[in-house]
Amino acid sequence: MMRELIEGLPRQIEEAYQNALIFKPSGASAPINNVVICGMGGSGIGGTIVAELLQDECMVPVAVVNDYALPAFVNASTLVIASSYSGNTEETYAALQDAIAKNAQVACITSGGIIGELARQKGFDCITIPGGNPPRSQFGFSAISQLRIFTAYGLIAADRFERLASLGKFLSDRQEAHRARAKELVATLADRIVILYAAQNNSGVAVRWRQQINENAKRLCWHHVYPEMNHNELVGWEGGDSRFGIIVLRSEDDHERSRLRMEITEDMLRSKGALLEFVDAIGHTREERCFDLIQQGDWLSLLLAEHYGVDPVAIVPIVHLKSELSKA
Predict the structure, then answer these.
(1) CA-CA distance, 325 to 287, in Å (whole number)?
(2) What mean pLDDT is reported for the chain?
(3) What is the CA 252 to chain-centroid distance, rounded?
(4) How, if at all, do strands 78-84 and 62-65 pair?
């Protein structure tokens, strides 16, 4: 099932684009001075990546909340985007209730659940997406829908969304290359603890890779970003060894000084016995390069799951945790 879902990402993006096109907001009730995106896990990572994609264009601050409560600054001039694939995420539902209490403007992205019902009752703007799949496999719907909300509310230029029309085909054309590169990475890094590094502007992409390796491959993994890792974690590598396999995500969007830092630290990391591989983003636009890396990470997580002989769909610990929480 997960293989088909990962292979279907290009088609999902095309469907998400068409689905989001029909979204027409009711209109801002007050000038929007800031945006808060709420979401957890597979629903939340879309907000993190969208915020990074828009940081050079959106003229109001964008915050991402992966928690139960909203910041104190949220008020009637805040647009709160509640993203929950199932519509039943307890943290996002609590944050949405907080948004209502603070009189914020609200837009929702969900397949239904209690958040979908609340959006219907309150008359909130809402993009409804198809349900029934693991949330992490529906990244396309999450990210594309959020980008549509930003354009629909006039927070970014309309053409920023329109150029996503060809994104699905771009990823489809890149699918075989992504699968082949993932096979190479598994052959090189399997049975090592994977560490992910990227420039700050691709921090969310690194998080996505980590989350996919966690959930699909059932492996521990961590990430850090340049230049910050050069101010702390680099020293920790004095205790590094051959247990670790490093993947450095690179893009032409990276700051030139961050690229230089990647090159300088490469030999330092290899000298500790760690294997290191670079994965370079391909694409003509920022969005293409971002999604190019995301699809590569998805394939790696799947092939790692197959290498370790685990079910990439199962999330037994999360199911247990939710069961225990429901008793409290």
Answers:
(1) 37
(2) 96
(3) 19
(4) unpaired
pLDDT tens, residue by residue, 136-191: 999 999 999 999 999 999 999 988 899 899 999 999 999 999 999 999 999 999 89
Report the alpha-carbon distance of residue 225 to residue 237 in Å, rounded.
Answer: 15
pLDDT of 28: 85
Contact 170/41 with Cβ under 8 angstroms?
A: no
In the chain, which ranges are E strands?
A: 34-38, 62-65, 78-84, 105-110, 125-128, 193-199, 221-226, 244-250, 275-280
CA distance linking residue 206 with residue 222, whole number of Å: 9
The pLDDT value recorded for residue 328 is 84
Q: Catalytic positions, please?
A: 215, 231, 322
Task: For the chain, list the domains and their CATH numbers.
Answer: 2-156 (3.40.50.10490), 175-308 (3.40.50.10490)
Q: What is the pLDDT of residue 190?
A: 86
**What is the phi/psi pair of residue 35, to 5°?**
-130, 140
